[in-house]
Amino acid sequence: MKQSPIAAIAACLLALVAAAPAWAQDLWINEFHYDNDGGDVGEFVEVVVADSVGTAPASIEVVLYNGSNGTSYGTHSLDTFTATTVSGFTIYDKAISGIQNGGPDGIALVEGGALVQFLSYEGSFTATDGPASGSTSTDIGVSEGGGTAVGQSLQLGGSGSSYGDFTWSAPAAETPGAVNNGQTLTTTAPDIPTVTSTTPANGDTGVAVTTTLTIDFSEAVDATASAASLDCGGNAQSFSGLPVTGVTQIVLTPDVDLPAVESCTATLVAAEIEDGDGNTLAQDFSWSFQTDPGVLEIWQIQGAGAASPFVGQVVTTEGNVVTAVGPEGFFIQTPDARADASVDTSNGIYVYTGTAPTVTVGDVVNVEGEIVEYFDFTEFSNNPIVTVSSGGATLPTAVVFDANVPSSDPNAPSCAIEFECYEGMRISLPEGMVSSGNQGFGNEPLAEVSVKAGSERAFREPGILEPGLPGLPVWDGNPEVFEISPAALGLPATALFGGTRVQAEGVLGYSFGDYELWPSSLTVLDEPTLPGPVPAPQAGDVAIGSINVLRLFDDIDDPGIDEPVESTAVYEARLARFADHIVNAMNAPAVIAFQEVEKQGVLDDLAAEVATLDATLSYSSELIEGNDVGGIDVGYLVRSDVTVLGVDQLGEAEILDYDGSLLHDRPPLLLEARFTDGDDTLDVNLLVVHNRSLGGIDGSEAERIKTKRLKQAQSIAQMVQDLQTGQPNVPVVVIGDFNAYEFTDGYVDVVGQVAGTAVDADNEFWEAPITSPAMQIVTETLPQAERYSFVFQGQAQALDHALLSQSARPYLVSAAYTRGNADAPESYEETPPTGEEDLGMTDHDSLVIQLSIALEPLFQDRFESN
Predict the structure, then answer these.
(1) pTM of the model
(2) Eight-state DSSP code of residue 444
(3) 449-453 and 482-484 strand pairing
(4) By CB neighbour count within 10 A (0-12 exposed, 13-18 middle, 19+ buried), where does 147 fall?
(5) What is the pLDDT of residues 375-384, one digit of tens each?
(6) pLDDT tens for each residue of 838-858
């Protein structure tokens, strides 16, 4: 916050008072009452402190002494007293019951541990402890003697400014917190000179580079040649005009003109300025101002830092080319001939007009206006003045985003602050891969998409987001990823799916914490065919699927459960979309494992909806309510040609030792299934899981979340091991939303812990794997480009997995994710365009694996040979 000259002077004066030295007897005991004619009623002590003391009340204490043995019996800090301000003084009083009488007894006044006064009544004595230890008290010469009426006290009278100016009087009407009867306080504090004004004033902008500096004082002062200094951008300036004697104004003339485009700070050194009585300034005094930048280039306005050095100032730039026009502003860029040679400073900037601009692309303009960092986006704002000097100019050369720019190395970017150095400039993207579908907002359902230059999309990689933790894998965060906001400059809002290749030209804008390419042209080069179904099972094969249905709740309000209640129309529409997905994208697997479904009745409704699409498909549901406070569960739909041998919820009562809470919010559900094809049968122990998410893993609950993720994985691993040990020849398949990658996130390798492959050195939290022999992570068998089921912040990643026991692995034929959910615009989850209801119904792609029933496992290895 900028400080006004008046505020700066006031601050200086306050500091002057605080730093002024104390002089003799500027605090004293002024009045007290210790002995009524009767009980201990109305007793008190009053202390006067001159404002010149400048010591915090907490460091001043009243200590009561018993004269019979010289020991202290009570200490009272002045900050517990009531304060009353009198010109030049503060009167402190406090009611204290039980003050000793029958004397001699005494009162000591202490400042910062040092004894200031040691007074006594009814005689003198020597203190044996406390701050007055070894000192003999001074008897004030008057006493109350047991006959004093309530409401009277001993008090000082007379006129003066220190203790020695007054005398103690016999008991009289008490005046706690006020000047005593017959007492006049006079101020004799030294008159310390102060700064009353400066030119330029503190916070001034647009100061001429040829200016002189003047400093006015409250009285005549002397100043040595070293009394003042001036620092402009790290360049110290020297002066003429010093030393001076007996002046109320110092005039400083810099030996050279002040540098342009700089913030300057002038400083007066207290020890080198004093008045005729030898009193110096209380402390050094400084003030700052901004020199007039004149006409600036855009790269000067932008600067090399994260923010413009001219924020809050009105500046002018001339002769720049309009490169793009939007609905509420336009971009300008320095012509190539005047462009800055430094890659660290941008040559472009946004001019916010608030209404439709009157300029066109190619105009050459002058702009004068205030520089604002609008949520970190540098722009001219607050009604800038725009003048068009000509039109039809050649546009400045665009920065090409490619394999090298922006840099993919967070520690070695193309410029000092990646993206910031291109802010507002023309950008050309010959080829880019959309990594995530459009973000969606209430008034903008098709907003930004994440993009990576080139033909490959951005994937989550192993490790902790940089800078990471020492000794653990580090993920660089894919710093080269940026956003495209298709409609930012007025182009039509365009639905863009993950996996779409685009070409674009435009300017680099900034919104909601992310840099965005605001395109003036956008071309789709290639887009995926969606929805993308998985292969249909071959004869003798059986398919097992898994899908996270994104909180599939019905239209019934269940008593006692805190749940969202969908409208009937929304619920029926969601059922229809998921039924279509099961039949046409998943190819109606024999068993489907579900995550985030409300209850068994919802699965029954979904089974009925599937039957309306294909009457030959008959599914039954299996679900046991779990522990999730949000009401979501895991469950199954089982096709009628599958025999259910058993269903069991595992680990539902297990406790997380970290805090005594339940370990499994959605306890794993075991389905013992028998698949039949003619005379061939295959029994499988199928375990659906939905583990604790990564949300909050780097926040205040980090340790608990990491511990829970590890303990859940260990618990599931033990379930697998029990199944492998109890039924060694029965294949085990663990499937579902693991909320974890096929590799370590650097904190906990959840999938690796279940599979039995986690490595100690790669994880912050780790325990020895339980599963032996280790399981196969099916995701690792897929091509690299297909290893994703979810997209988060522009990064494709696999959260949905299937793990196969050693006994299951020979039966594996194929595995695939459906496509069209994770890659769809966010708004499709609620309101897909007509005809595209089969896209984006949830934020996860579903997973389908196929196992062979017909072939003996000893001779079958079709999947690995492909």
Answers:
(1) 0.72
(2) B
(3) antiparallel
(4) exposed
(5) 999 999 999 9
(6) 999 999 999 999 999 976 544
